[in-house]
Amino acid sequence: MKDANKVLEADEVIDIVSKYIDLSVIPFGQDKRSVVRVDPRQPMYGGEGIVYLLQMFDAGELINNRIGCFMVFLNKHDQAGFHDHGPRGEEEVYVVMHGEGNYSDKAGVDGEIRTTKITKGNITAVSKEGFHSLQNTTDEPLIIFVITTNKA
Q1: Counting beta carbons within 10 angstroms of the beta carbon of residue 35, is it exposed (0 to 12), middle (13 to 18) or buried (19 or more)?
Q2: Using CA atoms, how far apart are residues 8 and 14, in angstroms rounded to an integer?
Q3: Contact 140, 80 (CB under 8 A)
Q4: In terms of CB atoms within 10 Å, which of 59, 75, 104, 141 comes out highest?
Q5: What are phi and psi of 45, to 5 degrees?
Q6: Are 114 and 137 in contact (CB under 8 A)?
Q7: Which of 4-13, 30-39, 61-70, 133-142 has the lowest mean pLDDT?
Q8: What are phi and psi of 14, to 5 degrees?
Q9: Does an H or E element contain 17, and which?
């Protein structure tokens, strides 16, 4: 990959990710399209490197705009640090689309950390009380589809 500390332009990120997965979405009543926006996070929740959120829906298309996005870790060791979604009343599901990494979770701030290797096809889920973290462990991009629920 490129310099791990340099934030890439949106089209560069889309080009890289498109080599591994199809970035098409067909919103209800609209034509097929691709990514709406690329949001780089450096660091993400105190993690390492840069994590890119590829937003697939515009504001107002879904109740919670974060509900359907790709979370992309382009470089080995890129990480989203431990965080929870309790204050927002959210729960989150991750679907591994490409790559390998480590998924860690713990119950509460002081809970025991449990780390599991994740690969393509694995699905994780965390409740609003749980803390979780992700890290890319290879030189291949780790691409996760994120589904977030919230109290309506």
Answers
A1: buried
A2: 10
A3: no
A4: 141
A5: 55, 40
A6: no
A7: 61-70
A8: -60, -45
A9: helix 10-18
Listed in order, strand segments (DSSP E) in 17-127 are: 37-41, 51-55, 68-73, 79-83, 90-98, 100-107, 114-119, 123-126
Give, for 130, the enclosing helix (H) or strand (E).
strand 130-136
- The type of residue at 56 is M
pLDDT value at 92 more than 80: yes
- What is the tens place of the pLDDT at every residue in 30-72? 899 999 999 999 999 999 999 999 999 887 777 665 678 999 9
Structure tokens at 116: 């599991």
3-state secondary structure of 128: coil
CA distance 151 to 100: 31
